């Protein structure tokens, strides 16, 4: 016996933590979420959330890997200086949206625009260099044998002169003293929170306008999660960055974001202000743990 009392039902947890009295299996979450998705989201709703002036826009995107289509006629709009969080069941296509924006997938149809410019066919390096789109990968993307300073310099690998990357690194050190104090240390000795700060900072060397952030809280202790979201909040509100993120901690992501999207099976099922989705009972039951 495990010591837990058998109440005659099955105990479980919701999509991301928090005990619930009624079990919802992963398959049942997917089934119920798919039912929600059938109604779809009106184009006017998507445009309205971006205040009608999207800085990043996706129209009817069909994308995937190899010959497999993951995203089906997917639409997205987010305004300049806004933040958008993608949530949904595992396998819904959330990270595929980020991959598609940055150029890591095969595009079968539709378009991606940044500030009115069609960037659908651009390579990742051209997305970063000429369209101002940076991708902040999940954890463990730093170069562990390089120093913190050298990692930052690597963020400017597309700059025509190394001196520009070094100058930008100095700006970052002046902003984030935590990194400055460790500039000569190998990245492998950093804490989890410091590594995430370094990953974010390295992406800033090229001075992007759009940040694609994949699972910023994954693998971090709670104190570091708060630190990372404070940094992202500063980048959005003090520097005007547009942020699109995937966050496994759905509650934390929706608390942060201006806009929330729920994806199901590669399609947009729900869209609304982050706080509105947080208060939605269906979203809470299926994705927030009760």
Secondary-structure blueprint of this entry?
Layout lengths: L11 E2 L5 E2 L5 H12 L5 H7 L4 E12 L2 E12 L3 E5 L6 H9 L3 E9 L2 E2 L5 H8 L1 E4 L11 H7 L7 H14 L1 H4 L11 H13 L5 E5 L7 H16 L4 E5 L3 H7 L2 E6 L2 E7 H6 L1 H7 L3
Parallel strand pairs: 5-10, 5-11, 8-9, 9-10
Antiparallel strand pairs: 1-2, 3-4, 3-6, 6-7, 11-12
Can you describe this structure?
The protein is built from 12 helices and 12 strands. It has one domain: P-loop containing nucleotide triphosphate hydrolases (Rossmann fold, 3-Layer(aba) Sandwich). The radius of gyration is 20 Å and the shape is globular. Strand 11 and strand 12 form a beta hairpin. The strands form 3 sheets. A 6-stranded mixed sheet has the order 8-9-10-5-11-12, with helices on both faces. By secondary structure, the chain is of the alpha/beta class. The N terminus is likely disordered.
Give me some keywords for this one.
12 helices, four-stranded antiparallel sheet, globular, disordered N terminus, alpha/beta, Rossmann fold, 12 strands, 290 residues
Q: What is the CATH superfamily label?
A: P-loop containing nucleotide triphosphate hydrolases
Number of helices: 12
**Helix percentage:** 25-40%
Residue stretches low in confidence (pLDDT < 50, at least 5 long) are: 1-21
Tell me the span between the first and last alpha carbons: 26 Å
Number of strands: 12
Number of structurally distinct domains? 1
Q: Which descriptor suits the 3D outline?
A: globular
**SSE ordering:** EEHHEEEHEEHEHHHHEHEHEEHH
Structural class: alpha/beta
Stated plainly, the CATH topology is called: Rossmann fold
Instruction: Report Rg.
Output: 20 Å
Within the largest sheet, what's the order of strands? 8-9-10-5-11-12
- Which CATH first-tier class would you pick? Alpha Beta
> What average pLDDT do the residues reach?
88
Strand content: 15-25%
CATH architecture: 3-Layer(aba) Sandwich
Q: What's the main sheet like? A: 6 strands, mixed
């Amino acid at each position: 016996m495990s010591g837990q009392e058998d109440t005659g039902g099955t105990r479980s947890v919701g999509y991301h933590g928090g005990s619930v009295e009624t079990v919802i299996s992963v398959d049942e979450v997917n089934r119920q979420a798919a039912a929600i998705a059938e109604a779809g989201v009106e184009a006017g709703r998507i445009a309205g959330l971006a205040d009608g002036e999207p800085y990043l826009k996706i129209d009817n995107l069909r994308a995937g890997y190899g010959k497999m289509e993951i995203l089906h006629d997917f639409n997205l709009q987010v305004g300049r200086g806004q933040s958008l969080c993608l949530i949904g069941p595992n396998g819904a296509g959330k990270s595929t949206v980020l991959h598609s924006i940055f150029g890591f997938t095969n595009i079968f149809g539709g378009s991606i625009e940044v500030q009115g410019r069609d960037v659908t066919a651009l390579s990742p390096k051209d997305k970063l260099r000429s369209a101002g789109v940076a991708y902040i990968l999940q954890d463990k993307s730093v170069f562990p044998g390089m120093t913190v300073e050298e990692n930052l310099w690597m963020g400017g690998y597309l700059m025509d002169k190394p001196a520009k990357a070094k100058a930008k690194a100095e700006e970052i050190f002046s902003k984030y003293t935590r990194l400055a104090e460790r500039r000569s240390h190998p990245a492998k000795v950093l804490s989890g929170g410091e590594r995430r700060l370094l990953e974010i900072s390295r992406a800033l060397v090229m001075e992007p306008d759009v940040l694609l952030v994949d699972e910023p809280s994954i693998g971090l202790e709670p104190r570091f999660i708060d630190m990372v979201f404070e940094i992202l909040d500063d980048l959005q509100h003090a520097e005007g960055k547009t942020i699109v993120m995937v966050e496994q901690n759905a509650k934390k992501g929706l608390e942060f974001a201006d806009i929330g999207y729920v994806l199901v099976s590669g399609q947009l099922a729900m869209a609304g202000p982050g706080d509105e989705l947080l208060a939605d009972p269906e979203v809470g039951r299926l994705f927030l743990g009760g």
